[in-house]
Structure formats: C-alpha cells, structure tokens
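A quick aside before the break. I want you to see a complete sequence-to-structure record at least once, exactly as it would be stored in a machine-readable document. Don't worry about memorizing anything.
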Amino acid sequence: MSNEVTNILISGVGGQGILLASEVLSEVLMLAGFDVKKNEIHGMSQRGGSVVSHIRYGKKVYSSIIPEGQADMLLGFELLETYRYLPLVRKGGSVLANNLQVFPAPVTLGKESYPVDIPAKIKAAFPDTKLVDGLQLASDAGNQRTVNVVLLGALSKNIDIDDSFWQQTLQKMVPAKYLEENLKAFSLGRNL
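That is the input. The structure line, written in tokens, reads:
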C-alpha cells in the first residue's frame, strides 16, 4: 500500500459489527498519526441489508469516499457483499473475506438463489484473496459476536501499525465485560 492515501473498504450486512470495526480501525489509524476520513452507508442495515464503510488514511485526506477501482483492500464480512463490492478494489488490490453466507430476504423467501462459487469468483478476480473462518475463530475466542474483531485482527497484519495502538483502542471502545474475549478474538485473527 504505497499510495499517498490508502483506501480500505469494509462491506457486509447489518448486525455484523461493521460500524464498530470501522470506528476501531479509524481510531487506530488516528493514534498512529494519520489523517483519517470515514464514510458509512447503511442500506436497511437493521434488517440485514448492505452496510459499507469507506476508510481513507494518509498524510492528508480530502474526501471520505473511495472512488471506484481505488480501494487498496476490501475487508468483507459476508461473501455476497464482498463479491458485490469488488469493482471498488484496484487492480492488484487485496481482499480479506469472512467465509460466511448470510441469505438476503429474496433467497430466504425462495424468490432468488444465492450465487454459487463466490469464493472462487473472488479469487479469480483477486488471486491474493484470503478467506477467514471468522465465526469459528470468534467461537474459539468465547463469543460468536466477536467476528468483527477477528477480522480486524486479520486485517491488522496488512497495516504496519504497532500492536499497542490496537490493544489501546479495543480497551477504550469495547465494554469491560466483553474486553477479554475481544482481545482474544483480535489475537486469533492476527495470528492466522
């Protein structure tokens, strides 16, 4: 990620903790001394609709929206939403995706079918794609709701920022009663 501004797109569905993940990531980047701009788009997010967060950071960032074909990395919380946002990733960019399917309403109601072979399609477009079993790792950490922090841990390996900033931010933003399992989830993701 050598551009002057680095672009990270996070996509998924409502209820997956994308907004907390983007808050944590933005805070970590600010602590590391970067100018950070963030923009979130919620499409019926409380009903399992699409949620996307644009995070741009660098020495100086002027806009919060990642232009099409300019994302350096796509962090996908759900496979179909990861696939949907591939056009925003630059050629040579990378994709880190949670290997999870969340069926949208038309699929659940039998009106449409969930596309097949999404991981293969993503890897065909971006050979550097990494799939993560976030739900299993979150379960290993003691709470399935920590998938977002598992994915942040996996993402953290691709951003050259001191681990202490991540720890400090999680301690600040995660309620104390959930902190231990979130720190464990982050560690499991980071050590993949």
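Two observations worth writing down. Residues 92 and 126 are 7 Å apart (CA to CA). The radius of gyration is 16 Å. We'll return to this after the break.
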